């Protein structure tokens, strides 16, 4: 009886390990398309863009991926209210993407002669190892 339980437990453990290994080696989901209005505002007013650092563990594991973020361009051109909308693989690149985006600077958006905050801007940051 003990031998049978041990064998079935071992088989379950091997199955779970194999499933986890397969999930870790799957390619990231395709990155979603970005709305063009946000891209225009962000591209036309961007002054400083800091690229995210590649997480060391992701580099060792050979992982590529992307992070879609939402944020606000403040009246003075800094970035606030950063949130991760989606990412693939999940949570692998999120921290570095947020850290880099927080350092971006924009020329303030002027409407009717006054600087205006621009909420809900979205950006897609992609992470790919060089071949």
Automatic annotation (TrEMBL):
GO cellular component, one term: outer membrane-bounded periplasmic space
Topology versus the membrane: Single-pass membrane protein
Domain TonB C-terminal span(s) in chain numbering: 39-131
Compartments where found: Cell inner membrane
Signal sequence coordinates: 1-23
Keyword annotations from UniProtKB, A to Z: Cell inner membrane, Cell membrane, Membrane, Protein transport, Signal, Signal-anchor, Transmembrane, Transmembrane helix, Transport
Entry keyword Nucleotide-binding: no
Broad class of where this protein is predominantly found: membrane
Organism domain of life: Bacteria
GO BP annotations, alphabetical order: protein transport; siderophore transport; transmembrane transport
GO molecular function, one term: energy transducer activity
Function text: Interacts with outer membrane receptor proteins that carry out high-affinity binding and energy dependent uptake into the periplasmic space of specific substrates. It could act to transduce energy from the cytoplasmic membrane to specific energy-requiring processes in the outer membrane, resulting in the release into the periplasm of ligands bound by these outer membrane proteins.
Family stated for the protein in its record: Belongs to the TonB family.
Protein name, UniProt field: Protein TonB
């Amino acid at each position: 009886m003990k031998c049978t339980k041990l064998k079935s437990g071992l088989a379950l453990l091997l199955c779970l390990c194999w499933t986890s290994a397969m999930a870790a080696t799957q390619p990231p989901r395709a990155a979603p398309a970005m709305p063009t209005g946000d891209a225009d505002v962000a591209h036309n007013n961007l002054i400083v863009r800091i690229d995210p650092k590649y997480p060391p563990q992701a580099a060792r594991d050979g992982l590529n991926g992307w992070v879609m973020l939402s944020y606000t361009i403040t009246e003075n051109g800094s970035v606030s209210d950063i949130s991760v909308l989606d990412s693939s693989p999940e949570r692998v690149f999120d921290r570095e993407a947020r850290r880099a985006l927080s350092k971006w600077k924009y020329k303030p958006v002027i409407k009717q002669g006054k600087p205006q905050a621009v909420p809900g801007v979205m950006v897609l940051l992609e992470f790919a190892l060089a071949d």
